[in-house]
Amino acid sequence: MSKITRTIFIITITLVFLVAFSPSYNSLNIDNLAYVVGLGIDLGENEKYKFSFQFSPKKSSSKSNSSSSSEEDSEQNASSTINTIEASSIDTAINLMNSYLAKKINLSHCKVVVFSEEVAYNGISDEIYTLTNNSEVRPSTSVVISKSSAEEYLNNSSPILENMITKYYEIFPHSSKYTGYIYNATLGDFYSNLVSIDSEPYAILGGVKNEENSELSQNKENSISSNNYLNRS
Question: Cystine design at 144: which of 114, 159, 216, 226 (Cβ 3.0–4.6 Å)?
């Protein structure tokens, strides 16, 4: 093979690789991805389910003025965006949300999946199989059954000692190490127990403190009752 032919061959191969990998690079660019930190599943009105996608907050590129308080900064960091959509399945909801946002949904940072109590009563095995088969969803994702709607649970999940909602979702299940009210129920454990013949799947029971729960403890200030504790296994 002559030197000219070899040069042409190398240039051709290089161009082929550039053309082949350029679209994939653009599609996976971080600017084209929407990271989900929480997924809520409720019964829908027009479709089978209503899905709530909670997205990680965008960090502001501009620095705050020196006069801004640290409390305001914490509230800004803790804020998140929740979009809802009705669909017949998780995969359909993701495809519809991709079109709506003009970004690709990414579940690699999803920390919690919340099912409403009504959805759980009807059975969630199909949804668990779908999430488990999704290569982006981590087995360490927490599974919560909410006595309120899943959308309401996500909207009212406000960390007290953390300034990022993602950190809160990551830490609160581990309180099972020092309390008996919460168990670290993960998607991987739920799936393993679901397919096992000698065990049953379990999840964290959650809810939102409402006026009814407040009335139960109005005469017990500065105390916590097991009747209105909101996260337990």
Answer: 114
